[in-house]
Design brief:
Length: about 120
């Protein structure tokens, strides 16, 4: 069954959870991430399978999303905080409780975007 989102002001993305197909509002997504060669959307309280490629979403989504590593697109508004770990690596903490790292390639860009010194 199709569960329709009330917010349709941005790109319609379909998420799959069991037998449900849910229209996903990118504003509700904390991050899109690849795990086991599949793309998922982490949201409050649930994770949905997304049948797109990460690079497709990256080109379609607005400046509200930032690529933090090779397999994760983060929603800037859903980042709770950053922490510095060994070797000055950055860890991103999302409001949903998920954590991910910023790759060495992306550190400079992420720091510039958030004004981190």
């Amino acid at each position: 069954k199709l569960i329709k989102s009330e917010k349709l002001d941005t790109l319609p993305i379909l998420g799959y959870s069991g037998d449900d197909i849910i229209e996903v509002d990118p504003n509700d997504v904390h991050c899109f991430f690849i795990e086991g060669k599949k793309l998922y959307a982490a949201m409050d309280g649930r994770t949905l399978l997304i049948k797109h490629r990460l690079y497709e979403l990256e080109s379609l989504l607005d400046q509200g999303f930032i690529k933090i590593n090779q397999s994760t697109l983060a929603n800037i508004k859903k980042i709770e905080r950053f922490s510095v770990s060994i070797g000055a690596a950055l860890t991103v903490h999302f409001k949903c409780g998920r954590k991910d790292y910023v790759s060495r390639r992306q550190v400079k860009y992420v720091k510039e975007r958030f004004g981190i010194k």
